[in-house]
Amino acid sequence: MGRTKRNRSSIMRDKTGTKSSSSSMADSEAERAPTNQEEVIGGHEGECGETKMAAGGHEGECGETKMAAGKQPTNQRAAADQLGQPYTLISLLTSVLFLISSALIVFAAFRNTLTWHLQRFWGASGDFWQAGWDRILDAVGEDPVNFWVFGTVIFTFSVYWILGGIYTVMDIINKPAALRRYKIQPGTNEPVETKRLIKVIGSVVFNQIVVGLPVSYLSYFLMAWRGFPPLRELPTFHWVCAELALHILVEEISFYYSHRLLHSRMFYKHIHKQHHEWTAPISVTAIYCHPIEHIFSNLLPPFLGVFIAGSHVATAYLWFAIAIISTLNAHSGYHWPFFPSPEAHDFHHLKFNQCYGVLGVLDRLHGTDTVFRNSRNYARHLTMLTLVPARELYPDQQPKYKQQKAL
Q1: pLDDT per residue over 346-402, tens digit each?
Q2: 33, 66 in Cβ contact below 8 A?
Q3: How far apart are CA 87 and CA 290, in angstroms?
Q4: What pLDDT shows up at residue 116?
Q5: DSSP code, position 338
Q6: Are 149 and 220 in contact (CB under 8 A)?
Q7: How confident is the model over 248-267, as pLDDT tens digits?
Q8: What is the C-alpha R_g of the chain?
Q9: Environment class of residue 11 by beta-carbon count within 10 Å: exposed (0-12), middle (13-18) or buried (19+)?
Q10: Residue 52 φ then ψ, to 5°
């Protein structure tokens, strides 16, 4: 009996040893796994050439982002499930409806409040906005070319450089220091290099005038062919909201696919690479790009919704202003309280092959935000309702070896 017990215990020890040795061998094999294996982000083979996955960092050429191999699941749907976010069409549609309805509710509240205060201040009777619009038409005339061509160029140029100019001054003087707490990538562009900034300003002005003016003429001819409402009568507020919802959806679709196409091997090196010179962007780099990219990825997506809806020129102005302010914020490098989060597009500039869209809906559908959703930046990707910076609320996680050292 004694021998039998000893034999059984030895057998159990052998089995346990075998299991532990097997697991240790598996662990050692996992550690020796090659770190430069090639993966395809979002299931799109050949996009920007071969995407090489190695630990940390990135290569600027053709969006080749390096990451630790094996840390991100290759199955995008499995990754979404791991994050507890079901990968369904219903969830995507819910996200779209929530984003658009929230934006329109805020816009409606702002419009009603502003109208009430302006009417009280000016003592205006009737429709304040229609009365103001009539005064503009009486002053400049009702030639649609002036509004659709020259008015569009002057208006968009002004919106871009009024807001972009404020950001640029902050980037140059590197003040006020208190606002640098809201930097997404601290230590970058503090202050911005003058030589690089001058190059950006020259390229942007070229795109806005030399490229923008002929495109505005073409847009006018297309709208005249399609038919647009009379200049004198402004659309109702509810109709403007409905058209803005359409514009947002059309831009999300057209910008996502045009942007992703620019990251293909064919177009990245010769066209889109210019825009990605800035891995930590500043606000005015929003339309720092090749003229071809400016036409098909910056001007066409916002215009498509206007063309489809046959929008009034005043609605087009409002939509263009919203789109410009949005892209300036997305490229600003700052995550402000109470503003939409620019974390996704900033991450795109940092890693190149993630987050191609505006709303992020098509990124979720195509799995081109998996790395982003597994990063600390995703935790910060929300509208902050506090003055505490996102990086302080969600600080970077220390590597495990540093955590162990601290203990």
Answers
A1: 999 999 999 999 999 899 999 999 999 999 999 999 988 899 999 999 998 776 555
A2: no
A3: 35
A4: 60
A5: T
A6: yes
A7: 999 999 999 999 999 999 99
A8: 27
A9: exposed
A10: -95, 130
Whether the per-residue pLDDT at 62 is higher than 90: the answer is no
| Residue 170: both structure tokens together | 């902050």
Q: Kindly report, residue by residue over 310-324, the tens digit of the pLDDT.
A: 999 999 999 999 999
**Contact present, 25 and 349 (Cβ < 8 Å):** no
**Is residue 152's pLDDT more than 50?**
yes
- Is residue 174 a contact partner of residue 191, using CB atoms and an 8 Å limit? yes
316 bridge partner residues: none
| Average pLDDT over the chain, rounded to an integer | 79
Cβ contact 105:65 at 8 Å = no
Furthest C-alpha separation in the chain:
112
Smallest CA-to-CA distance from 165 within 279, 331, 281, 283 is with 283
Q: Which tokens is 117 given? A: 């205060």
Per DSSP, helices labelled H in 83-210 are 89-122, 128-140, 144-145, 152-173, 194-206
Q: What is the DSSP annotation of 242-311?
A: HHHHHHHHHHHHHHHHHHHHHTSHHHHTTTGGGGGG-SS--GGGGG-S-HHHIIIIIIHHHHHHHHHHT-
Residue 38 sits at φ, ψ, to 5 deg, of -100, 130
Instruction: Tell me the mean pLDDT in the region 203-217.
Output: 97
- Are 262 and 352 a contacting pair, CB within 8 Å? no
Residue type, 233: E
Alpha-carbon span 252 to 4, nearest angstrom = 73
Taking Cα atoms as reference points, which of 377, 315, 402, 30 lies closest to residue 184? 377
Q: Token pair for residue 306?
A: 């206007």
Tell me the torsion sign for CA atoms 83, 86, 87, 92: negative
Bigger pLDDT: 88 or 273?
273
Q: What was the pLDDT predicted at 130?
A: 87
Spatial contact of 307 and 254, defined as CB atoms under 8 Å apart: no
Q: How far apart are CA 245 and CA 89, in angstroms?
A: 19
